[in-house]
Amino acid sequence: MSYLIQPDGTAILKAGADPAIERVQGYSRYWLGVDLAQAQDNTALVVIHDEQLPVWAGPNRQMLGPRTRTVIYADKFKGVSYPDVVSHVIRVMTREPLRGRTRLVVDGSGLGRVVSDLLHDAGVQHTAIQMTAGQNWKRSGRYTNVGKTLMLECLSVLFATHELQFAQGLALREDILAELETFQLETTAAGNQVIVQGKSGAHHGDLAIALAGAAFASEYLKPGVVGVGQLEGWI
């Protein structure tokens, strides 16, 4: 099948000019999660490719095919100033094929507010996630408060159901897996279940949090799609 991917990530299945064809639009976009360094931690970047393309459902009708999400890029570094981090993030976002098709999610907690402000001043649209206790989330402007437990549970479910997978040969894949293994479920004195990170000198969780932020955004902050179609099996 031949697709036309628009600059904004809209995906169109080429079908000629026949007006009788029922058409749908899919998408091919990216989510870039950024966890910012605190003290001796690393700044981490992780990219998820999120795609749902149109397919033929008959000779004159299209429908959306299965949705796929794939971790395609990961990077981490330390000892870099926040202005340089912003410049690097912008460079990643403007590379092909990410240019114009990427939604940015940054850690907006603590000093992360500084980076969010720098991005805002540079005209870079993004969501700044502030991790909180609990399992709720709430958006206010460019800031979104999200329970850390909710974020990590979302990531766990996506992996368990194979809705999120790693690209073949992904650099730092083993590092991400090792970081995810340091998180564990605990019960508080009030009887609430929370996910906390166990102590490990080798892994700080930077890549895992960057990935969890991107995965959460892909699940809860994705743009809405409005369309008209026909229910299968109904007359």
From TrEMBL:
Taxonomy, superkingdom: Bacteria
Name this polypeptide is given: Terminase large subunit gp17-like C-terminal domain-containing protein
Organism listed in the record: Alteraurantiacibacter aquimixticola
Species lineage: Bacteria, Pseudomonadati, Pseudomonadota, Alphaproteobacteria, Sphingomonadales
